[in-house]
Design goal:
Layout: E1 7-9, H1 25-30, E2 32-34, H2 50-59, H3 69-75, E3 78-86, E4 90-95, H4 96-99, H5 103-107, E5 116-118, H6 121-142, E6 144-146, E7 153-155, H7 157-168, E8 181-182, E9 194-196
Antiparallel strand pairs: 1-2, 3-4, 3-5, 4-9, 6-7, 6-8
Bound molecules: zinc ion (2 copies).
One zinc ion binds at residues 147, 149-150, 152, 163, 167-168.
Length: 201
Amino acid sequence: MRRHQIVEHSCFGSFADSGSMYKGEFNAAFEERCWSDKARTCVKFRADLVKPIERFVEMCELDPKVTTAREMDELNPIFECRTCSSVEKGRLTMTWARAIPHPCAQRQKSIKTKTFVLLDEHESSQVRFGMALEENRAIRKACRIMCPNCKYRVSGHDKYLQHMREEHGVLEVPDLLDLDYHYTPSDDTTTPLYRFFPSAR
Ligand SMILES: [Zn+2]
Ligand SMILES: [Zn+2]
């Protein structure tokens, strides 16, 4: 299987050790490098995950042969792993993208075993709301933010406020937009797992 090279701009970080076929002139000319550089391969095909993907699509009563990832993203089903759920810890819920690499997904040989269950729309909307809050919190805590004044990059919102205060004397920092947060291709931006309470079903 061949895939297109995907390039990232050099402002994502150092690209001196690129193992890319475009090493040299391409990097020099465009200051870009490829995701598939040997040093940091970010795009790969996982044959072992094909079956788990098919099962999650089937649980949504869709045909895995024709359903696209975008359709699944738009549907945004929420699954619960029953193996990992407990009264004390809550119900372990996840998006379909997060469910695929979840270790229990490999062990689920058939959807009849009910290792995973698809939540109904009422519960799913509660989980999505909770996930969004947690995701937002995690981004503010850990994501890189570039200072608009000096282009220095800091990790996390608190450090950003500190940088603006100490380096530029700015006390009133305007709210950040999504664009101000900088991701690299190796960042995992999948919606995190979510512990859902109440645990009784
Ligand atoms: Zn599990
Ligand atoms: Zn700055």
